[in-house]
Amino acid sequence: MYDLGPRFTETSVEPGANLLLRGPPLTGKRQLATEILAAGAATTEGTVVVSTRHSAERIRTDYRTLFDEPAIDTVGIVDAVTRHRGHAVEPDGYTKYVSSPRDLTELGVKFAEFVRSYYVEGRVERMCAFLDSLTTLLLYTTLQTVFRFTHVFASRVENADALGLYTIESTVHDGETLDALTKLFDGTITVDNAGTATLSGAAFDDRTVDL
């Protein structure tokens, strides 16, 4: 089972679960996901962040406030931002770069490489993956393409018995888009402007907490 961090105390989900964090911009979705990641890293879970919003450098800087020092250095990051901004960077053992958020094939390949290396090389026995965000992907390509990509991504999480977290800006997209993508997930965490987050899904009881 995977615990859902300090906000959702005594709440856990089955290995292979995929959760969508949805809500308006600037309501704390990314912070909540980071808290869940940090709690897992403190109990030896591996962490992979696939970012279409922030650079690997920015992510590691932000995460240092929540992650223990040894854990932050072993966070795997797929960065689709830095090269897109024109910076020349080289990958290392824990950072892989993609040319643009529109290159979904390469995003998937780099994520799969982390999954294989983490498990095959025995780095971790459990893993949490965070895709931030689906909204950015939808700016570059069609709903159908993002749906297919997310379906494959979520299947990799499920097959690895990992935990998958994903963010989307609910007020940016129409209801049809949100409904289509939500069907891919085992549950949702809905964050609102009032500062609350509600966990819901078929496999667990609804629960609302303050952020």
TrEMBL record:
Pfam family of the protein (one): DUF7504
Lineage: Archaea, Methanobacteriati, Methanobacteriota, Stenosarchaea group, Halobacteria
Organism field: Haloarcula nitratireducens
Protein's UniProt name: Recombinase RecA
InterPro entries: DUF7504, P-loop_NTPase
